[in-house]
Queue: 3 jobs
Job 1
Amino acid sequence: MSVIEITKPKIQIDPDLLSKLSTQTEELGQVILHFLFNVPVFSEGTKIRIWPSSYLYDLNSDHVSELVHHENITLYPKWQDIEAGGQRFFSLIFSGLPKSCTLFDFVEECDSQYGAFEVRNIQRNNTDVYYFMMR
């Protein structure tokens, strides 16, 4: 295999197009949501799972970050049992939010009889790592 060094070609980009593109760029990275899900002692236990149709919605734009990885929770259609008084730690990793985002929602869009995971009006921090406890 041989390698050939080339010079950087000169490219002309329309200033209007360049301006439009610069407002649509996203900051590379990920957003991580960690959850502690508690089941009451005086219950019959429960089942949980996450749907791939779970998103982060930037409340300042029309940007939507997609779920790219889930850890320690099953993905639809499988269920995960949690006994009464039990708990489950799990994490969800999403594609990055735009640099301009300061407030966002986490919404699991599903038709589950048990309801959907949802956290509204999350104030963005500088680490893009968030912790939540659910019951």
Job 2
Amino acid sequence: MSVTFSINGVKVEAATGDNVLDTARTNGFEIPSLCHHEAVSPYGACRLCLVEINKGGRKKITTSCNYEVLDGIDVKTDSPEIHKHRAMVLELILAEAPKSEQVQALAAQYGVKQSRFANAKNDEAQKDRDNCILCGLCTRVCSEIVEVNALTFNGRGDKRGVGSPYLEQPQTCIACGACAWVCPTDCIGFSEEDGVRKVHRWGRELPMAKDENGRPVAPVFQLHHFKKRVGLPDDFFKKAPGSR
């Protein structure tokens, strides 16, 4: 089934169950976000995708990534009030990730060049969480797409962070790099050197399988994980040192 509603005065259609953010972007309306990716479930962490929803004459500002489309609603993607709220959110995010070029560029679009909010974390805690904005994209892609559940949220309050359970090296991590690819602030990072892939933030290092010409292809653990997921024969990939 489909529903019909309007975005900035333009009538659009979407399937029942779709969210406002993805629908707006599909129809060419730009809404900023840092914690959203269409491949994983919405989380509403960054609060940047705020829009104004008019439903039956009652208006409210809410996140669009986890707001389901409804017949007859009227959505505004930008207004002076929405702009003000997004600028405030960006000040808070900039305080958490002051070195992130992505955050700096997005903040500049809303006239935010520096944050008034000092980071309340102590120096050691901030060092461990440099530029992490707790968007949860890495945890969701790890559990929902890769399906290894190597990452989770840990701690509470100003000590809340993202990492492996019990803050130990994530033994289920296959070094696929998906977490680093979706990270909006590039605070995870990975590299390949001498036949080893390193996922920097988690301290994970795994050997890579090589092709017939001796060129690294992908981590051995990654190949074996996806081989099992799609039911490939055991000898589908060339065996390599360190395979399990």
Job 3
Amino acid sequence: MDYNKELEIEFINRLKDVIKELPSICEDFFISIGQTTSVKTRLGYAYDLRLFFDFLGENVKAFRDKNILDIEAKDLEKITYKEIDRFLDYVSYHETESTTKLGKTTSVSRINNENGKARKLSAIRRMFHYFYKVGEIQSNPAELVETPKIHQKNIIYLDKEEVEMLLDAVETGTKLTKSQQAYHNYTKTRDFAIICLLLGTGMRVSECVGINIEDVDFYTKGIKILRKGGNESIVYFGDEVYDALSKYFDEREEIEACEGHEDALFLSMQRKRISTRTVQNLVKKYAKIATPLKNISPHKLRSTYGTALYEKTEDIYLVADALGHADINTTKKHYAKMHEQRRKQAALVTKLREDK
């Protein structure tokens, strides 16, 4: 089965499990948004709503003696916008209990910034909107809650010299610990190809790990990927990525993958399709050597590509298309500062009067 289809089925099964922990009325809500949202989005909503109902049971008098599973739509009318505000304040920092595979219970601290709070409010608003729309509640308190203000962060990316240092760190393995160097000889060709691919195409790490061998066309220098949201797209790569991928393909042909992972392009040391966590860890490992003062992740390599492309082309629409942004405003939001700097430079180009 296709990797992305397997991943979708995994998300569907996880969603079903979480829905079982929510009030039974929520099943209708999730069915109603099934055609307009991805399963990953719905799973995120389910986690957020589970936390919300847990909060109500522990902190709101009207729900303390009520089993979460037995909550009915009419009970939602007991929730005011103040309770939702209190919930958003609660998730700024809270602790949850987690049970390990060995049965040991541990306490996990969780912090949510304004982005995390906004996502949770979005899930709550969507649920209230549904029950209000179908007439099962007479008011919608979630609409009265102010959306947390999202502060735009400066884009963190690597400059040309830092990119070179990162690639050198992958190729040479210098400054790695002894235990890391022991594995480096086995993984450096793969790691170099992955980092070149992320830097040279701006693809997401989830798109990278989903690549199959047959998705790469060296003749056209294109790779078929599945974008966020489920749309297929072709991304193109340059000569440096071509060389890195070619060397890895030669190595990959000699590796016998585990059953079920034969089609995967990038493999782990266990000869299975590489995971997003492994890619995240390997990027951080080499970036810590090359740029110790910057917290570089695969997403920052994506920002590096987007920044370089915008600086060379000054075409925000091209950047949006290359990064796979469905909405141009997403690109403008992230590259607003650079966009403004370009506009300021434009103001200096034309002189109204020649110098006397």
